[in-house]
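Researcher: Can you fold this with pyridoxal-5'-phosphate in place?
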Amino acid sequence: MTRSTGNIDSAHSLLGRSGARLSLPEASAVAERLYHVRAMAFDLPSERDQNVLLESGSGERFVLKLANPAERREVLEAECAVMLHLEPTGLTPRLIHTVEGSAIGMHGPQFVRLISVLPGTTYGTARLHTNAVRRDLGRAVGRLGRALTSFDHPAFHRDFYWDLANAERVIGTYLPLVADAALAQRIAAFVAYHRAHVAPMLPDFRRGVIHGDANDYNVLIDEARQSVTGILDFGDMVYSHIVNDVAIAMAYVALSAADPLAAAAAVVAGHHETRPLTEPELQALFSLMCMRLCMSVCVAAKQTAERPGDDYLRISQGPLARTLPILAAIHPRFAHYTFRDACGLPPVPYAPRVTAWLAEQSGRFAPLIGRDLRTTPVAPIDLSAGSALVSSEPSENTPAELDRRIQRRLAERGATVGAGGYDEARLIYAWPSEPTGTEPRTIHIGLDLSLAPGSPLHAPLDGVVHGFENAAAHHDYGPVIVLRHRTEGPDSVEFYSLYGHLSCDSLEGLRVGQPIAKGAVFARVGSAPSNGDWWTHVHVQLVTDLLDVPCNVDGVVRASQRRVWKSLCPDPNLILGIRMEELPHQVPTSAIVAARHAHIGGNVRVSYGANPLNIVRGYKQYLYDDAAHRFIDAYNNVAHVGHCHPRVVRAVGDQLAVLNTNTRYLQEQLTAYAEQLTAMLPASLSVCYFTASGSEANELALRLARARTGARDVIVMDSAYHGHTTTLIDISPYKHAGPDGEGAPDWVHRSPLPDIYRARGAHADPGSWFASRVGEVIADLAAKGRRLSGYIAETCPSVGGQIMLPKGFLADVYARVRAAGGVCIADEIQTGFGRLGTHFWAFEAHDVTPDIVVLGKPIANGYPMGAVITTRAIAESFDNGMEFFSTFGGSTAACVAGRMTLQVTLDEELQRSALLVGERLLSGLKPLMGEFEIVGDVRGSGLFLGVELVRDRHTLEPAPDEATFVVDRMRQRGVLVGTDGPYHNVIKIRGPMPLSLADADQVVDTLTRALRELPGRR
Ligand SMILES: Cc1ncc(COP(=O)(O)O)c(C=O)c1O
């Protein structure tokens, strides 16, 4: 039954509810008598009919529909007929006949029907709606529609209130009752558009019997698969325009979507796949879907007038009040183009004609700058998100700075003209008026020519002045002119060329309608600040449809609407003729994926599976993809002081420009760094070795231990990971006990991972219990006559699942190991440099001093580097005649990178910041254990946190798929985290140290939203 919004019942029921409702036992008795179905009965919410859910002993489920006594038999018969007709689609409930073979049974004077229950959740109650399910809804409506083409019934040829064909009439009647004046005005505007542009087309539209009410509570979906399982309710069937079915589905889908247009377009796409829409239908769809929503508002207003004070009505109007202004801001032609794009058609129908004509004219345009760009040397000017011409620091992208960098690039190329920017994703735009949370506009849809200020611009082809203005807002066009042109020949169409960032005098004496002859100088290039405060250039844009904007057409658009905008604004190079090799070139993500398949080993994994990220820039705690979309990096601990920290970048760059050599020469950088680093460690750890990676450092640590003890055997922790080399795989159960692992060699002995969450409080003193297990391994070794070289463990096991070691454990273990003659190696590769917030090194939290500390990852903010720091005694044992040399370890630039990373960590008090931000994260994450059954544990310290997901709080069955789902959904909302742990069910939060309190709130909010969307969550 039609709902005036997603969740209120019919505003206009032809029949009010009347007649006594049956008790549940009575309903059971009716089912048994009429259908021989013995079942328990449960009430279902319903308004017009009484619906009762029946569950038989064998688990079969039915709905018994007891018709409203005022219902006409003819209508019910029609509904039964349509159900029988649609049964082969598999999308609609099965009608069960009475034992006497009737579609309609009788209970006294009351009509009764029995139908099967379809699987799935209603779209309206489901928590996750992706475009996949929206597309499938379009398909399902299309399939139903196709089946209905061979169906008709006189009862459906009716003047039905909810028929979308009557929208104007219904809205006209009840609009005066809409109390919200602004909303009423909007609705009036929708109606006016509909009357002028859509109503005249309707008489020619295809007609037939339609379902008429694919609202979100009449559509069933499989939430996990994001597919449609059924369509219910045949109470609103009517002979009408067949396009109305998809329009109604789109309307309700749009209501629950953050981007209503994209959501509606997904429905159109699916529908077009199964039942192609005609061009006039595609043109009308947006208005029809808006009219359906307007009808809902008006009918609800009528209900409110009848039932004042009904809170339910008020609440249910929320989505409409939110969505209609969004839809009102969309130009209906833009929506039309978006729907065409969704159907795989050229978005602007005549754009191919414009581009084909322009291509034909190639070589005949007058040169815009007075010199032929096909022969003038042009330098590509790449201002994309990944270009070094742009600074990550907005204050460094002033017009003067950009001009300086561009001039340098031109000089390098021996060019006086720079060009680029069409379809380029840029970071340099920020519009304060744009609402936060919406997709930022990043795609530059014009082409920029960097020229000397005052350079004359010649009209490339005949035209007239269509519009001009001084768009003086900061970072707008400044002076801008739009010329109107026309293609020649049959099917001639108008199009436009736009020129922005001009000199102010370009507008003097100009008048709309003024002819501008091909080749005539009509404007000059402006400069900052009057050109919108940009670097010196002219922005050239072609436009096939101005969408009723007089002049100031968007030059930068959203990446999600890229294809539509490229059709609205084709490549300006069609009239400029710059050689392709002189324009910047971005490698498409698809090409990178293909090259990766061709040339990179398959097990060099990429995150986010089939939908990997193409990251082109990092700054502070943020990463940016090739669409210039920002992500909070809550995962990567290597960029310790923030991605591309300017002090580190400058220090390393400066050093690379002077010297980068190895440890065979005296270099102050090496010793100064060693002094600084050891000053941060306990006094006994005084000798450093530098390497090029964490793996190399752990390898060296093992050699040091062997040199010191003369023994080889080591004890490791289950699930540990210490590096990728052959020896380190041997000591890493995470690898050697994982897929294709060969197990531990005889010199490697495993001890249990001290995971107190999974130990479930079984031990009163887990620290000493787990330490005793290490003791047992030591005893076992001794019993076998083997000697212990060392014990190696991460101080907070990371791939083990972000584990915090129990109190007392490490001190106990170290004592046992030392008693057995071994040395204690702390792998601090993940946890060093203040990450835990409470301590600079994780081992400090356990009141122990290791014999060897291994550092890596964050040590040099991404410059390849590892370090081993040990005692003088161990170093002396190792200094046994064989030289130690690592070509890149301790190189000049690496030491500079390490020094500056350490200095910034201290200067910016990042340990303290990690503590505060970590506390904020924990205070947001811990309550999730109360809200979501699946969140079994939240643990960690500072910016080293884990959220463990389990399917069952008693068995602790891991929830790896759910964890992956959450990580994927968080990425969709701009937050990067990862999964880890032996069961891949721990969400790992561990980003760069500058993560802020606001970032922490966003991480928590995004994680919470993702958990809410988990299909079938408890
Ligand atoms: C704890 C630990 N040790 C060692 C390594 C190896 O470091 P690298 O990848 O720099 O060789 C890693 C890397 O992930 C690690 O997490």
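Model: Folded with pyridoxal-5'-phosphate in place. Residues 279-306 form the longest helix (28 residues).
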